[in-house]
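Thread: Newbie trying to understand structure tokens

Hi all, I'm a second-year student working on a class project, and my supervisor (Dr. K.) asked me to get a predicted structure for one chain before our next meeting. I've only ever worked with sequences, so writing a 3D structure as a token string is new to me. If someone could post the tokens and maybe explain what I'm looking at, I'd be very grateful. Here's the chain:
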Amino acid sequence: MNQRLTSQNGAPIADDQNSLTAGARGGVMLQDWQLIEKLAHFNRERIPERVVHAKGSGAYGTFTLTRDLSEFTLADHFRGVGKQTEVFLRFSTVGGESGSADAERDPRGFAVRFYTANGNHDVVGNNTPVFFLRDGIKFPDFIHTQKRNPKTNMKDPEAMWDFWSLNPEALHQVTILMSDRGIPASYRHMNGYGSHTFSFWNEQGERFWVKFHFKTQQGIKNLSNQQADKLKGIDPDHAQRDLYGAIEDGEFPKWSVNVQIMPEADAEKYHLNPFDLTKVWPHKDYPLQEIGVLELNRNPENYFNEVEQAALAPSNLVPGIGASPDKMLQARLFAYADAQRYRIGANYNQLPVNCPHASQANHYQRGGAMAGTGCPFHGRSPDSAGSVNYGPNSQNGPAQQAQYAEPPMDIAGAMARYDKTVEDDYQQAGDLFRLMNAEQQQALFDTIAATLEQASEAVQARMLSHFEQADPAYAEGIRAAIAAA
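---
Reply by user tm_fold:
Sure, no problem. This is what the structure looks like when written as tokens:
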């Protein structure tokens, strides 16, 4: 038996196919509230797309801990071998709009949410261990160069390379992006990284610096420029289709979860800045330690509700896991949650995909759009938790949990806008280049030349000087490729 059709207020609808008119051929009546409700809701079916990472796919799964990390952290999901934690993972491209092709040469977002017993823990990263910038104040300018030119409304190679040529800190990530790993064949066949430096702290109040690595168990697979160009025309949603189909067929993708751990005191004496997002920590100094397996085994039931409205943010931290002095991370702690408040509303964390599944949210924030939505995993929202909306109080409201206080972090130095160009921007980019074989290097030259040759001669010259400092052969190969273009 069919369910009865109703309006949003639950009133039965007698006729959903014909507007209310003044006679069979007359005008539509303003009092046709059914028509107005349908059209008004339709006009609002789309929330603003993300400024970055607009095109995405997502799935649920489980994280199984295989190594106990109690000596490093009191985070619940990292304690007790065999502990299983529900996860949600959103993949994405970065620069394109929501209707763009999955096969673009672009970093891929890799954002993991752990629904832990002490709240949601989000690791919002990419498929690369580094990024183009080390300071968030440059991020809006960078993204403007990756989007459409405000005059032509087209992608702008001049702006892209002009910015990179004036910010050599981007060279390491540019080398990765333009390499043969720049276009993953699917979301299942790529690694993920937390990229930033985070912190662990344990019951003794000891702090450790940590980096997260998610290594695909499906093997690394990438597309050539020619394969990607063909696929963009045949199936622009190929990565979404691949992920959804694999899970539906029971071919659950898995990633080995690894961490690099650095004692807090090491940061001061380490030969590079461990909080610089343009750098990796060499594995010979801080080896990867495998701690578990992440498996995706359930597709969302509703894409809009569970993927488009998924609101992951690096500020979603839990006791035992904290931030670091990483300048890009510090900026993202504000920017990501603020973007979700703008896109979805102040109560976005009451939506099912965003509310803590394994713990109850209790706080004194009230009102705003969608207040009282309620998390289905707990049956109520903070708005329905009684009248007390302030703290402290004597009405048995939510109380502070002092046992979870983060240990103090020593910070020293005069407040100033420090020049960060003193960092070495070339060594790790050159090291990566030298790891490539001749065929990989030639593909790198050709890919860079394809867009760099569209930039002005002044921009080309600046950019080539950076490649030269990374490795003279790097610059020479690009010069030759531009000349042959």
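A couple of things are worth pointing out once you decode it. DSSP finds 13 helices and ten strands in the chain. The domain at 56-132+181-356 is CATH 2.40.180.10 (Catalase HpII,  Chain A, domain 1). Feel free to ask follow-ups in this thread.
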